[in-house]
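Continuing the batch. This is chain 6 of the set; chains 1 through 5 are on the previous pages. Same settings as before, nothing changed between runs. Recording input and output for traceability.
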Amino acid sequence: MTTTLDTIAVTSPRAVRSQRPTPAGRALALLRRVPTWLTILFLVVVTAYPLFWMFINSLKSNTDFLNNPSYAFPETWRWDNYATAWQTGNLSTTVMNSIIVTLPSLLLIVVLGTAAGFALEVLVFKGRGAVLLLFLAGIMIPGQMIILPLFNAFFQLGINGSHLPMILIYTAGGLPLTVFMMATYFRAIPREIFEAATIDGASMVRAFFSIGFPMMRNAVLTVAIVQFFLIWNDLLIALVFGGKKSLNTIQVGLLNFSGEYGAINYGPLFAAICITVVGILVLYLFLNQRIMKGLAAGAVKG
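Output for chain 6:
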């Protein structure tokens, strides 16, 4: 004879009341969150204040900017500084030139860098470690050292005075870092996936475009954003190889706000910077989640 005893838990009102947080407990929990809130507030201020400062100064006249503190509000709100910035900085031309230079460079960097990372990490061949070290050596070469030899080479080829030299330099300059990052990301993909594709009859080119590249979408986007900022914000290469005013990029166009004797028209200058920064901020806000996923993708080996 088997006897089954069921245990019934009885919850008394006193036990329920004892589980509720007391006012002292709630106050202690709030005090524990104060350092976190203060840290977040500090980071928000540090990030947002430069943008606010830049916007406020874009609405000032030169007299207001020089006679009053830079953090003070303008005495006269000069909204016409934005129209002046667009005309003086020739932003319609400089922004288009930046796009013409940036997009082909990004396309070449992403395709060639991803393919090289795939070959160096997935394919097995003798000397791939030495090849990767050669790519890494490119990161250590300062760009200022090769400007004169490159200028002479492009001059002899007769391609100066066009966008092509800048595209070639940006592509070559962006490949070392891209190859290193993409090789790191490919380490997180199990080799069995590519082995299964090979058994099914897929070539390496098919495996790359059908399996490897689609699996690296977030990583590719992260690398593209990093390279985009490096190319878009470059001044030295664009200034040296641009050659003529019609080829000026956005960063070179900002030099137009400096007068003949070094006088700077601060209001329109800050207005031009605001116009260029807003587009980049909007782009980042739309893509930040994918960028975070891409940064985390290469952190762990699968």
